[in-house]
Input
Amino acid sequence: MAAPATTLKGQPLDKPLLERMLRRRMFYTPSFEIYGGVAGLYDYGPPGCSLQANIIDQWRKHFILEEDMLEVDCTVLTPHDVLKTSGHVDKFADWMCKDPKNGEIMRADHYVEAILEARLQGDKEARGKKVEDKEEDPKKKKKKAKSEAVKLDDAVVQEYEEVLARIDNYDGPALGELIKKYDLKNPATGMLPSDPAAFNLMFQTSIGPNSNLPGYMRPETAQGQFLNFAKLLDFNQSGMPFASASIGKSYRNEISPRAGLLRVREFLMAEIEHFVDPQGGKKHHRFQEIENVELVLLDRDTQLSGKTDTRKITVGQAVKEKLIDNETLGYFLARIHLFLEKIGIDLSKLRFRQHMANEMAHYACDCWDAEMLTTSGWVECVGCADRSAYDLSVHAKKTGAPLVVREQLAEPQIIEEWQVRIEKKKFGPVFKKDAKNVEDALEATSQEQREKLAKELGEAGKISLDVAGIANGKAEISKDVLAFEFVKRSVNTREYTPNVIEPSFGIGRILYSLIEHNFWTRGVDGGDEARGVLSFPPTIAPIKVLIVPISSKDEFKPLLKGLSQKLRGLGISSRVDDSSASIGKRYSRNDELGTPLGITIDFQTVQDGSLTLRDRDSMSQVRADETRILEAIRSLVDGSKTWADIESELPKFEGQELDVAAR
Amino acid sequence: MAAPATTLKGQPLDKPLLERMLRRRMFYTPSFEIYGGVAGLYDYGPPGCSLQANIIDQWRKHFILEEDMLEVDCTVLTPHDVLKTSGHVDKFADWMCKDPKNGEIMRADHYVEAILEARLQGDKEARGKKVEDKEEDPKKKKKKAKSEAVKLDDAVVQEYEEVLARIDNYDGPALGELIKKYDLKNPATGMLPSDPAAFNLMFQTSIGPNSNLPGYMRPETAQGQFLNFAKLLDFNQSGMPFASASIGKSYRNEISPRAGLLRVREFLMAEIEHFVDPQGGKKHHRFQEIENVELVLLDRDTQLSGKTDTRKITVGQAVKEKLIDNETLGYFLARIHLFLEKIGIDLSKLRFRQHMANEMAHYACDCWDAEMLTTSGWVECVGCADRSAYDLSVHAKKTGAPLVVREQLAEPQIIEEWQVRIEKKKFGPVFKKDAKNVEDALEATSQEQREKLAKELGEAGKISLDVAGIANGKAEISKDVLAFEFVKRSVNTREYTPNVIEPSFGIGRILYSLIEHNFWTRGVDGGDEARGVLSFPPTIAPIKVLIVPISSKDEFKPLLKGLSQKLRGLGISSRVDDSSASIGKRYSRNDELGTPLGITIDFQTVQDGSLTLRDRDSMSQVRADETRILEAIRSLVDGSKTWADIESELPKFEGQELDVAAR
Output
């Protein structure tokens, strides 16, 4: 069970208070609200937008610039054939069922889960047990069905619990059987819902005026990167391994999106596709730089045993123990951890959870999620999947494009193998229309089979072979038209399809978790609502500096303008608040926006040009001339110094209480 | 007629050479090429992607940061009702016709134009006139119909020319009539095409599992900004004027997209919506900062008189002469000009063209386009429209949301007016079910009508009023239930719907024009192909520094790594090229990528740590220690210094010819 969510300072997190604040400061807002809104669509207002841009900026520096990744920007519009090949047309679906009375459409797995859990809850109440506050898992978020205190047979309780433990294992028909077997009526209508039907999560459209080219809005940015693999390899002068990266919107037509940024229909992703040679254990040449990074891991086996105990372990040790499969996967998990730390995620609310076999996407062979603890429980924010050679292979097979690496071997490799030799001129006339099928069947034989068949052909002068698609399914082939030869040959190049390690970031989920992790409240003396603060690191904060004049006199105006211009010249965003509110109120408004620094312009500034600089979190202040204050701001914003550094360098200022109203 | 396109150095622009180079260096590439591609969709490779990111970064600084604009990020998915209200569902369409034989779909206006022009061309040939190389207008780009030398009557020539001059004026039915009247058969099939049908340019989809919420992919980012107007005004603490801004993808299902980035179906836009009080002449408080900026203008009247003569004039003078309608519009035209100059657009290939009345979008009341001269003629890259109060008004009317500004008046305003007084208790029983209609009709009367009706009521004791929706359409109302009173009242607030000035940037078109404007070729001695160079300003260039070791010896490796890391620390992108190609070849590869600076690491570097820095354009070099070289790079990349500055500060280096192969 997850601990109840807390603020940055360990206070119980008052979610309604936070939500009011986010709305008031326009971090994000339901799209098309004046038209009644559309579920799962949100717009970012100025602070949210800036926060998003700063996260992306740090992401680009941390990943793309640091590792010379090849960034690409591919289209959202994607023709049907591409997503058919990738498996999304057939497999990127959820099961939904419909209530015949009120027409409500529900995710079938969530529906079964909610009702069984409500019955178990009711059983506990009837047995007089204390009802636990169940951990909410946002991946399985559902409307909680209301429980009635009805006692169940012990055997039934056990059966329900077993079903719930395996809920991700059932497909649509199986969920439909459960609904009938346990008579899972919709509490809202008293009706059984329809049989579950597959609902593809992609938005469909058609491209061009003919309406004859069906297409989709991409569900991930990855496919565009895979399709460009050969060009990217060429751009990289054939060097391996290398990574491509892409930042862009993706779309999923969720059956039931929830309020907030955690399950939406349009979202910004940042994805890396790291292409690596599958041979040689997927080593990474910079692994030693991160091997001592400690991660909190929740592995597959622990989960299968029904537990959620995590383990804090260095990446080096985890790879050694094969807990994490290989160096490249470990390298990226550590790099993800370092990125999240840098932007201000609370590390005590971060874990890496390994996917269980049955919950992985159709293309993945291993996957770890970076999950963050929020008021909605543990939320998956970054996935790090090993997609193996799946995508490159299926696209190459479909299109014939060589999505492979050709590697010059240091020394030629000697290959010994059985080869099939067909006497084409005679072979055709013997098998006529079946010739192609028979030839294919011969070519498909393995080395072991060929060795056996060679012996048979030598001894009997003919062989009998299973051939699909011809009359009676068997062909008899004589040594007149066929031979097997054992050949030794020398190979200078090696051709392989790279494997792909894919770190995939949901920027909206990270942004929301970041808000919760940096939120806390400052006590107030009076009866007012606790005052919210967002303690974003200066690099990430939407606005860096609030400029507050202590008076609205004309002599302050040129000072404000000059200071704004200088900050702008440094590329630092600032806001002037020359409203008539008290200085305290003005600062508190900007605490809510997460503005880390404040400059007060007072009467002494007019005299000697000195400025006070205030730290949002400690509310302590320093005072110095403009040059030194600007230098301090620059070093705080680029992350090279902390407030403690600045406090030790510049004179402390305590001459004036901030909460005094403007003179 | 446009002059033929030239390179940055005035050479004739060899477009096939440029295109080969852009493809080789993966600036952009057709999307889904291994699946055969989709017309109008392109992916950006690493240099294109970086170029795009740098343009956006400069845009954010130049507009959003400089002017404290409120950036928002709204969804692409947009429900039907919003775009119905905005007029896009009904009016955002082109007329298309279809060839009944080969099924080809063509834009009707382009079709008529192409065939008439071919006939006029044929006439000239038949008359033995020299055939001019007609200017290509990419807005009207079409397949050129092949001309046959057939002489036309003088009257027919005049008629065709008049039709062509007004081609933007015809709607679908009129274009259909022209096709029949002039028997405009498709040269490819000899058939008359179908009657033109309206084809809406928006991509349609449906949102949610019910398929009952039709939606579109937005055709512009503007609507999301308008819908958030009230929240943004509130965020801005009710201050006016202010601007919102948005950077994001938009979509138009073009009937016939062309090769290249100039007419595509998915594109990145950067749009500003500047909200301004329509009263007081739309002044701008920073106008004096830009009033001396000189613009090249092609105004509406000049175009209507059939000419394309431009005029170079300061913004101040143009506004004074009312050539540009108001200060705010002029301010943004100047700011657009300055932005384009900053990113490296060739100002001799830039003009601002005013829209003619018949070519404006349905929402615009005035519009100027920043057009750039390219190998495809003059290309519209930035639009700057005055959308008046159109959008806010229609959305407010449809939803009832108050998309208005309420302004406290400095002194109360006295209003004298006739008011309607209804004796509710008696009025209802008299008119029964018609009461609401009669009341509405009374409330809808104008001040003039009320004055007349008051007189009539006073004299006759009753009035007769036209009322829609009631039996016989007239109501007789007596003074028992009705009175008109002349009232004087004092008003403290003014309510108005702001006007919108909208600068709207097509980033892909700007990016492509920027490439052409910065392209030139360096002569070579041998018979090789001329070597392409892209002279992007350092702030905009995709990669800033190429690092070239003169030898592949091991002692160079730590130097390369250290230097890369230091540049990364400064946020400057670099590439190491330690391939075995000659130094000259390696630099020439990076000239094609537009990399402005090169560092050579040679044997002296190993001894004393000094480095040479090379300028892409002049190929001259300086040499200094690492600290000074890094400082020079930083100042060049942030735009604070030019190469001439660096050359005057650091010792010139001529010790080594670059085109000598690596030792």
